Automatic annotation (TrEMBL):
It comes from the Eukaryota. This is Golgi to ER traffic protein 4 homolog. Belongs to the GET4 family. GO terms for biological process: protein insertion into ER membrane; root hair elongation. One of its GO terms (cellular component) is cytosol. Pfam families: GET4.
Amino acid sequence: MSRQRPKRTALPPAQENIDKLEKIVNEGNFYGAQQMYKSISARYVAAQRYSEALDLLHAGACLQLKNNQLTCGAELAVSFVEALVKGKVAYANENLDRVRKIYELFPQIPVPHNLEDDDDLHELTEALGAAKLRVEGCSSFLKAAIKWSIEFGAPKTGSPELHVMLAEYLYSESPELDMARVSFHFVRGNNPEKFASTIVNFMGKCYPGEDDLAVARAILMYLSLGNMKDANYIMDEVKKQVENKQLQLQPSDLIQFVFYVLQTLERDALPLFNMLRANYKASIEREPAFNEMLDDIAEKFFGVKRRNPMQGIFGDIFKMM
C-alpha cells in the first residue's frame, strides 16, 4: 500500500502572512521572521502568485530595514527583484516606486573622521566595516533592479532613476570612494544637476590632480554615450558652481583637451579630433579608460569602426556595475 503525501496547506492571502510576520519582527525575532519570509514567498512564487510574493517580500524588506536589520533587509530586497524577474513584471512607475521605497530605507550614516585616541580608531574601524556592508547590500539590490529594468522595458542602459539612486549611495556611503563607478551610474541617469553638484563636492575634498580627472571623466563618459547635451551642461555647471563656492578648478591640459573635444564634435571634424588625441596623448593616458571612451566617441560621432567590436560601453555595462 503506497503512502499518500501529506496535503500542503492552501496558501492564504498574502496580507495574512504579512500581518503575522510583522508581529514576529516586532517581537524581535528577526532571524525567525527572515526564514519565514523566504520560505512563504517561495511558495507564492511556485504557485505563480507573483503579486502576493512581491507584497510579502516588499513588506519584509521594508520592515527589516526599519528595524536596522541590514543583512536581512538587503536579502529580502534582492529576493523582491528576483520575484519581479520570475513574474516577468514590467518596468513601470508603480514598480519603480516600490524599489525606491526600499532604497530610501537603507541607512545613510556618516563615517567619523576626527581621530584622537585608540578608542576613536576602534570606532572608525567598526564604522568602515559597517559602511562596507551597507554599500554591498544596497548595491546588490540596485544592480539587480537595473538588470530587471533592462530586461522588462527600461532604456537599454537601464532605468535612469535606478542609476541615480546607486550613484548617490555609492558616493555618500562608500568607505573607499570610486569616483569612476559613481560617474558610470550618473551618466546613465537623468539628473545631471545632481551629478555636477557631486563633482563639485568631490573637488572640495579630493587629492590634488583628481579634480580635473573627475570633470574630464564625466564629460567623456557622457560623450561616449552620444550625449553631447549633458556633457556641455556638466562643463558649464561645474564652472558656475566652482565660482559660486569660491573653489578653484586649476587650468590643466586635460581640461583644455575636453573643452576642445566638445568644440570639435560641434564641427564634425574627424581630422581635428585625431590631432587632439595625438597632441594630448600624455594627458589622456592619465586614466587608462579614456582611450576606450574616445574610441566610443569616434564611433558615435564620426562613424569610425572600432578595431575590436567586442569592446565598447554597452558590452562593459555589467563589468563596471
